[in-house]
């Protein structure tokens, strides 16, 4: 049951998201209109919202039409989403209703990896070569001109469908993999060498403030298996990355709220990988709360409600790390060690995503990981070592499948495969 309307409270529509997010919106003084999928609904959220509308919240046009009717009945102050799958719908409604916030043009550029590269080059922000490709000949020509390359879906997240092409000798194999996977349209980019960092920023009416830098640990498949804060960057690197991210946010049109950007620190300076107008996933935002004391979601709602001035994050309070659990492909027979690890007072969170009887697939993207462990430490190095040590105590034992199926394709893996195959995002406008 939803709670009663407060006629004096500003109204905010929240697309998707978790119950914890709704609590922070309520604490900021909002009446909440919650738009969610009927098969994913956490009914505990109904006690926190004034209205709940169950629909396909990933359909921008449907959400914009729905919220137009809601807005006519009692005006909304803003439409937001904190999750990737809700960003385009929130932007479509924001644009259609003429509300403050990030509009559809901005979200489309951020979600279209080719358009993002082209805009950065056009604005003179950086010049990482990128082109659209479809087959082996395209990859071969790109590698011949620019050297090692990465191919990736034009629209996508979680490192799904991302492959390195280290040189001409690998082109045929990667092209064959792309065809089998169903990736018939892809972006080809120059391969950026160097450590990767993510940047959690918050924009206050066009003033961009970095909340946290996060160091990454990745597999060869580019799937992330570790996050560490503080990131251990020196002052020069910090200043260069902050400047680059700020210029990029200005270029794409992000003026308010959280953003999550990924950067490679190359020998020639920082280069952007991609950016999103939301806080980071994989509980990076929770890591920022632990280490820097900044709750990004709570800050967002307070800012949207006009109840906070721009902030300057303080120094790190020790260190924090996240380590993702991985397992050999097969059927899970047992998971051991989790209870002992969870009892360690330095553990902030432990989430298991597999149980006996589940199937573990080869790690092709973020959703193939077997769990998440978050710890706090006296320093970043201390937290990182602790995360590795405790994660090693958890064993996910699997047995090989008797008859492995055919290799997975995009349509079998991704929740919205059409987004990864190169289609144009839907929504209001052209």
Features:
single chain; 430 residues; alpha+beta; Rossmann fold; Dna Ligase, domain 1; D-amino Acid Aminotransferase, Chain A, domain 1; 8-stranded antiparallel sheet; 4-stranded parallel sheet; 14 helices; 26% strand
Topology:
Blueprint: E1 11-15, H1 19-27, E2 31-36, E3 51-54, H2 60-73, E4 78-80, H3 84-97, H4 104-111, H5 113-122, E5 130-133, H6 136-146, E6 149-152, E7 163-165, H7 171-181, E8 186-190, E9 196-204, E10 207-218, E11 224-229, H8 235-252, E12 257-266, E13 269-276, H9 284-292, H10 296-304, E14 319-325, E15 330-336, H11 338-342, E16 347-352, E17 359-360, E18 371-377, H12 380-391, E19 395-399, H13 410-413, H14 417-420
Parallel strand pairs: 1-2, 1-4, 2-3
Antiparallel strand pairs: 5-8, 6-7, 6-8, 9-10, 9-12, 10-11, 11-14, 12-13, 14-18, 15-17, 15-19, 16-18
Summarize the structure.
The protein is 32% helix and 26% strand.
Structural account:
The chain is an alpha+beta fold. It has 4 domains: 11-101, Rossmann fold (3-Layer(aba) Sandwich); 129-190, ATP-grasp fold, A domain (Dna Ligase, domain 1); 193-317, D-amino Acid Aminotransferase, Chain A, domain 1, CATH 3.30.470; 319-402, D-amino Acid Aminotransferase, Chain A, domain 1, CATH 3.30.470. 32% of the residues lie in helices and 26% in strands. The protein has 14 helices and 19 strands. The chain has an 8-stranded antiparallel beta sheet, sandwiched between helices. Strands 3-2-1-4 form a 4-stranded parallel beta sheet, sandwiched between helices. Residues 421-430 have low confidence and may be disordered.
């Amino acid at each position: 049951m939803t709670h009663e309307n407060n006629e004096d409270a500003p109204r905010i529509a929240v697309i998707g998201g978790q119950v914890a997010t709704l609590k922070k919106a309520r604490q900021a003084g909002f009446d909440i209109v919650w738009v969610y999928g009927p098969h994913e609904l956490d009914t505990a959220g109904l006690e926190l919202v004034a209205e709940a509308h169950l629909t396909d919240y990933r359909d921008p046009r449907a959400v914009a039409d729905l919220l137009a009717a809601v807005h006519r009945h009692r005006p909304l102050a803003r439409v937001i989403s904190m999750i990737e799958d809700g960003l385009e719908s929130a932007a479509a409604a924001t644009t259609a209703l003429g509300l403050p916030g990030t509009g559809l043009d901005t979200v489309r550029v951020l979600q279209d990896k080719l358009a993002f590269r082209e805009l950065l080059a056009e604005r003179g922000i950086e010049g990482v070569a990128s082109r659209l490709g479809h087959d082996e000949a395209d990859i071969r020509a790109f590698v011949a001109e620019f050297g090692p390359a990465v191919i990736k879906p034009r629209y996508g997240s979680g490192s799904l469908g991302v492959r390195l092409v280290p040189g001409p000798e690998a082109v045929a194999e990667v092209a064959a993999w792309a065809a089998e996977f169903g990736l018939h349209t892809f972006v080809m980019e120059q391969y950026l060498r160097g450590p990767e960092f993510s940047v959690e920023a918050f924009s206050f009416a066009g003033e961009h403030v970095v909340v946290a830098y996060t160091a990454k640990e990745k597999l060869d498949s580019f799937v992330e298996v570790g996050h560490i804060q503080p990131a251990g960057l020196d002052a020069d690197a910090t200043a260069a990355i902050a400047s680059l991210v700020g210029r990029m946010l200005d270029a794409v049109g992000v003026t308010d709220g959280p953003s999550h950007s990924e950067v490679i620190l190359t020998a020639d300076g920082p280069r952007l990988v991609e950016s999103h107008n939301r806080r980071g996933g994989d509980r990076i935002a929770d890591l920022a709360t632990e280490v820097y004391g900044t709750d990004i979601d709570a800050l967002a709602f307070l800012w949207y409600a006009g109840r906070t001035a721009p902030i300057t994050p303080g120094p790190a309070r020790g260190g924090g790390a996240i380590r993702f659990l991985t397992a050999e492909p097969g059927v899970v027979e047992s998971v051991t060690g989790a209870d002992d690890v969870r009892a360690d007072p330095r553990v902030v969170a432990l989430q298991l995503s597999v149980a006996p009887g589940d199937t573990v697939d080869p790690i092709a993207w973020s959703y193939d990981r077997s769990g998440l462990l978050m710890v706090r430490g006296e320093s970043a190095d201390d937290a990182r070592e602790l995360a590795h040590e405790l994660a090693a105590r958890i064993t996910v034992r699997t047995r090989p499948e008797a008859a492995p199926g055919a290799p997975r394709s995009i349509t079998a893996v991704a929740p919205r495969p059409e987004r990864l195959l190169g289609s144009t995002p839907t929504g209001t406008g052209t």
